[in-house]
Amino acid sequence: MKQALIDYIKRGTNDELYTPNEAIVPIIKYLDDNNFKTVWECTDYGSSKITEMLREKGFTVITSHTNTNKSFFDYEPTEDYDVIVTNPPYSLKDEFLERAYELNKPFMMLLPITAFEGIVRGKLFRENGVEVLVFDKRINFMKEQGKKGAWFNTSWFCNKVLPEKLIFHKLIL
C-alpha cells in the first residue's frame, strides 16, 4: 500500500478514472425509489459506464463534459432532468459540490470518503445536508486494465436522494 501511495503521488493528478459497474448497480434502487427518470451525467462525452448502465436500466441520460462548451460549471441542460449522477474529477470535488448545491437538484457524486474532510466541503454539508452511501469494499477503478484496486474508499455523496443520511452497502464484486 505504501508503494501505491508513492506511485500515485508521482503520477500527479489523474482524474480520468472510469466507474465500474459494481459502483453503479447499488444506486439504481435509489433512483427507482425516487421515481427519477432523467439523469444528467455531467462528466461524460456520452459513453461512460454510468450512462451505459443507466440507459440499459431504462433511464434517459443527458450527457455533457467539463472539457466542452457544455461545462458543468456554466451550463445546465434545457431538457428537464431529475437528478445529477456523476463520478467527478476528484481534484475538482469542491467545485462540483458547490455547483450541484447551487443548482438545487438531487445529486449523487462518487467521491473518496475523505471528501468529508475540508473546510469548504464541511460548510457545504452543514448548510445543505449530505447523505452518503458507503461501500464495505474499495472500488477497483483499474480492473479493466488488469491492475489491483484503489487504496482508498469511494462512496456516493448525495443530496435529496437517499432515505437516510448514512447507508452502509455490501458490495457484490
Furnish the topology, listing elements before pairings.
Layout: H1 2-11, H2 21-33, E1 38-41, H3 49-56, E2 60-63, E3 83-86, H4 93-103, E4 107-112, H5 119-128, E5 131-135, E6 154-159, E7 166-169
Parallel strand pairs: 1-2, 1-3, 3-4, 5-7
Antiparallel strand pairs: 4-6, 5-6
Which structural traits does this protein have?
5 helices; 173 residues; 7-stranded mixed sheet; alpha/beta; 19% strand
Into which percent range does the helicity of residues fall?
25-40%
Radius of gyration, in Å, reads 15 Å
The rough form would be described as globular
Elements, N to C (H/E):
HHEHEEHEHEEE
Order of strands in the sheet with the most strands? 2-1-3-4-6-5-7
Which stretches are low in confidence, meaning pLDDT under 50 for 5 or more residues running? 1-13
Question: Would you mind describing this structure in some detail?
Answer:
The protein has 173 residues and is an alpha/beta fold. The chain is 30% helix and 19% strand. The protein contains five helices and seven strands, in the order H-H-E-H-E-E-H-E-H-E-E-E. A seven-stranded mixed beta sheet has the order 2-1-3-4-6-5-7, with helices on both faces. Strand 1 (38-41), helix 3 (49-56) and strand 2 form a beta-alpha-beta unit. The radius of gyration is 15 Å and the shape is globular. It starts with a helix and ends with a strand.
